[in-house]
Amino acid sequence: MTRTGPTNNHISWETKSIVPEDGRRIDSGACQDARPKGRIRRSMTACNTCRKLKTRCDVDPRGHACRRCLSLRLECELPETTERFQDNVSTWSDATAIPSIEERLVSLERGMGEMIHLMRQMVNRSPSTPCSPILQTRHNSLDGTSSSDSISSSFHPLKPAQIIRDLQAECFGERDHFSDADILGDIVTQGIVDSKLSLKLIELFVEYFGHWVSINHSSSIQRSNTLLFNTACLLATRYLPGLSQHTVRDISLCVQHAVAKVLWKPPPMSSDMLQALTLLCLYSTSVHKEGLMDDWLLSGISINHALISFNFLNTLPGDNLNPDELLAQLRLWNTLCATQLHSALANGRTVNIQQQFIDQCPRVLEHAAATPEDGRIVAEIQLYRIALRLQHTQHRVQFAETEYEDLERWKMEWAHLLTTSEDSTLNLNLWFCQLLLYRTAARVQPDSERLLPEICGTARLIINQFLQTRFTTAPALIDHVYFIVGYAALTLCDYTLTDPLISQVRGFLLHLAPGGDNLSYRIACIVGEVQRRYSETSAVVTAGSHSSSPVAEVKGVQMFGASQHHRSGMDISQLMSSAEGLDSLVEGFVSFSDDWNNWWSYADRASAEGVA
């Protein structure tokens, strides 16, 4: 029997075409679509060995060899597929990311180590007994600190500027008051000075004070800008010591009256008014005893006006602004911020500027016309921010070292500005911040004796630097510099009364003073009066030899009582030794005393009692 059926001919799937019974042609591509995908994937992914043996190639898509080749220890040649290529790319990208991850891990470990180290130091240094509520303080940022909130009642900040003002009121009486009937308008129209003298005063102002407010030509100041014109003439009188004190007083009254009206004008304020207010913030005591304006209050109000008037504070950095106008606004803003920080640290008060606006200060350095003076202002702003933060952080002050890391980093960053100019006051500001921090730490540390060399040495650095000031630049120094020098002299009176630098700086200040109403004259008188009272107290303590602790006797003496009537002026000859001539003082002296005396500080006692 024969079997009948279709012929079983071999047909190649790759090369032959199939013609069905209905006559339609089916090409090989269509057959491949109809073929099971599993077989196609196995044939395409099998290695050469398994393909030749026609066996199953069991391989992981992410592997590098099949099981047969691995067991037989053969070299497995796998075909390159799209999936395998993508896997290799991801593998290489992961490998290149490993160093970055390691660096991040190392950084995190380093940060955790530093935190643990700081926590251990705080635990080891803190007393075993719980802290009393008096010593507990809140941790505040720079913008949130205040003398009454961030520090406990027994940890008041030092107030050198307030101390000097109180002593001035005691030595010279309260300031005179002026009424609305005083002089108004510009000083030429009022007949205080003639036009020729006013032109001379404006020229002197442009030469010595104009850089603060971007005024480089006398034509930039018009008589129509009454406040700016009168303020410029008032500051320039420092360089005309022969000018009548009555004339200076009349100019001062004009400025005060104008300020009283300008501050309460509705915003926005014109640029010339802001320039005048900025100058008065720097030289708040230039209006003499009739106008002892509070630079902290004045700068705070001026800053509020500037926030409304300045465009760059409300504009993104990328917006188009006139470059010259932007530079002038940035300089005014930086000067106002610096004055606010100066007065906040010197008066133990809070800072009335938000952090986002203080961060605008370095933008002035991006301008093509920026000067080294602009850099020094920015450096001072950062310096006083650091000092305020340290002073209002109790554990940093209580366990202070002789060198603060924050200040050391600041010195490294601005080292190029610390030694570039003889007339620069950046070093004085640095030493002043260090002096305040040392004296603050000495009041709360049990072993405060170790800080005495740092305190006295820093005060000497300030005075020695000031004695090298040229007479042509001394009248242009801002009032804050004179407060720094006065506080350094009072510090030497506290700790080493016989230091010859006290008499030297006192004589130098008197030589700089054109008259009895000048700030340098008043600080010299204050230093002389404090030195005299300490000397009298020292004599009383020495006479009472029965006392076991002379320092304790000094602490019990009230150095400064209630304010009494004083003469309108003090005899300069009473404040200077006959052996010390002014000519020798001009050249300055460099002498250090090795004898340390533990004198009770009036400044510290007054601050603790709430007087300062």
Automatic annotation (TrEMBL):
Gene3D superfamilies recorded: Zn(2)-C6 fungal-type DNA-binding domain (4.10.240.10)
Q: Which residues form the Zn(2)-C6 fungal-type domain?
A: 46-78
User: What GO terms fall under cellular component here?
Assistant: nucleus
The lineage is: Eukaryota, Fungi, Dikarya, Ascomycota, Pezizomycotina
Q: Does the keyword Transmembrane apply?
A: no
Q: Does the keyword Glycoprotein apply?
A: no
Q: Can you say what this protein is called?
A: Transcriptional activator of proteases prtT
Where is the protein situated, by its record's location annotation? Nucleus
Ordered alphabetically, the record's keywords are:
DNA-binding, Metal-binding, Nucleus, Transcription, Transcription regulation, Zinc
* Principal subcellular localisation of the protein: nucleus
Q: Which GO terms describe its biological process?
A: positive regulation of DNA-templated transcription; regulation of protein catabolic process
Q: Name one Pfam family in it.
A: Zn_clus
UniProt family annotation: Belongs to the prtT family.
Which organism's genome codes for this protein? Penicillium digitatum (Green mold)
Please provide, alphabetically and separated by semicolons, the GO molecular function terms listed in this UniProt record: DNA-binding transcription factor activity, RNA polymerase II-specific; transcription cis-regulatory region binding; zinc ion binding
Superkingdom per UniProt: Eukaryota
